[in-house]
Write a structure and sequence with these properties.
globular, five-stranded antiparallel β-sheet, 26% helix, 6 helices, three-stranded mixed β-sheet
Length: 305
């Protein structure tokens, strides 16, 4: 597992784009901060580590577009976090929400709360109607694509060879599993993922921007399969696997499903929901750096008691 200095950027001089592997020509080389400074609150990356890589212009532009509204939405505090936000940060978040366009609604994030009106009949002649409002939402496909880019760059760094200026890419595929807001970090799938992968060998443990960015990867004990997790702005977590699909499917097949309830259903349309489940801090081991077996043995040998 690579150790990262908490106050020093890792700068790679790679000759191929970290994200798409194309050969980089002089006129097509851009420098990319893997954790963009605008992705986290202003100043949070000062004196904190980052990864800086070479990327082609199209990939850099794509990543920047993904970061724009995802950052603005993940920085919006849920009610439980309001007491932890300074007035300066709240003002910054409000400015970003007003200036960033949601890719789902095509409106500013600040105006992108989503509403659903539900109509139905309780009995003959008795009709009901009510509405539900949710905060601005992130498109799942775009969120998982940004997570893939973050993890691609971090994996490349771990295997980077300074003499050849090349890094590696994982074998086989990228397999997203679950995306959950802070209020739902304790759902059955997230809990099962934490439990199933907690004791796998840690290959990456990355925390920066005062905790506003986290990432980890753990390797399966015997298969070409890695578990990955990212957390953005203390707000959103995404988890999944990369490597052999069959290995990932075998693990996930034992997970319980997140139970959905149907409010309204028909052959052509349906509205389903489920109750979000918070995660107690004492139970949160997703980014906990657990001791390896070798470390536990060494510690026991040193402790006569």
């Amino acid at each position: 597992m690579r150790e990262l200095s908490p106050k020093r950027a890792v700068v790679l001089k790679n000759i191929r784009c970290v994200y798409c592997r194309c050969d980089l020509q002089d006129g097509d080389v851009t420098r990319d901060h893997v954790i963009a400074r605008r992705f986290v609150p202003k100043g949070k990356l000062n004196a904190q580590w980052n990864l800086i890589v070479n990327a082609c212009q199209p990939c850099n532009n794509k990543k920047s577009d993904l970061e724009d509204d995802i950052a603005a939405i993940t920085l919006l505090p849920d009610p439980e976090m309001l007491d932890t936000r300074t007035s300066d940060l709240i003002e910054e978040v409000q400015r970003r929400a007003a200036g960033s366009i949601s890719r789902r609604t095509r409106k500013p994030v600040a105006e992108s709360s989503e509403e659903i009106e539900i109509k139905g009949a309780l009995a003959a002649g008795v009709n009901v109607s009510f509405g539900l409002t949710s905060p601005p939402q992130i498109d799942r496909a775009r969120a998982f694509e940004l997570a893939r880019l973050h993890l691609t760059a971090l994996f490349f760094m771990q295997s980077y060879d300074e003499s050849t200026r090349e890094g590696g890419w994982w074998l086989h595929g990228f397999h997203p599993l679950e995306m959950a807001p802070r209020s739902d970090w304790g759902n059955p799938v997230m809990r099962s993922f934490m439990t199933a992968t907690a004791n796998w060998e840690c290959h990456l443990h990355a925390v920066t921007a005062e905790g506003f960015f986290k990432a980890s990867t753990h390797r399966h004990p015997s298969e070409e399969c890695w578990a990955w997790a990212v957390e953005w702005n203390h707000s959103l977590r995404l988890v999944g696997f990369f490597g052999k699909m069959e290995s990932a499917e075998a693990i996930v097949s034992g997970f319980p499903e997140n139970e959905m309830r149907t409010i309204q259903g028909s052959p052509t349309s349906a509205i389903r929901y489920r109750t979000e489940i918070a995660l107690d801090e004492a139970d949160d081991i997703l980014f906990q750096l657990l001791q390896t077996n070798a470390e536990r043995v060494a510690q026991n040998d040193e402790d006569p008691n």
